[in-house]
Amino acid sequence: VVKVFQLPFCGPHVIPHFLCDLxxxxxxxCSDTRPTEMLAxxxxxxxxxxxxxxxxxxxxxxxxxxxxxxxxKEKQRAFSTCSSHLLVLSLMYGSCVxxxxxxxxxxxxxxxxxxxxxxxxxTPLLNPVIYTLRNxxxxxxxxxxxxxxKLQKQSFGG
Length: 158
Known about the structure:
Helix content is 75%, strand content 0%. With 158 residues, it is mainly α. The protein is flat and about 65 Å long. 10% of the residues are buried.
């Protein structure tokens, strides 16, 4: 960030993105940004690989613990929970790799917007949805709402 703010900026001061991220900000500079882009690339790669290794170690420990569970039902339930978490993690890491792990940050700003949307909106929204849909009371409330909807539709001649 310090390196980016040392760049000279001229021309339009509008970030072509919905958030102030390094790639779009670097794109606004009117100087040679290759050293800054390479530094951003190396740092992003280091951060993503380090956090991915920590995540893999943590989930490996979780899998080992699950495999030690005595009943098949407990194992199935635990793996079911882990699989939804891994789906969210895959979306998050995938979008981060797509956005940050490329040497030239100024390319594909339009596609970066969609990936940033996945990273900043979709992924955080999925966690509560996953936890909520696993709740038995929520399942029952959804069933009740659907049956009420069907009854209303039938009573109005639908």
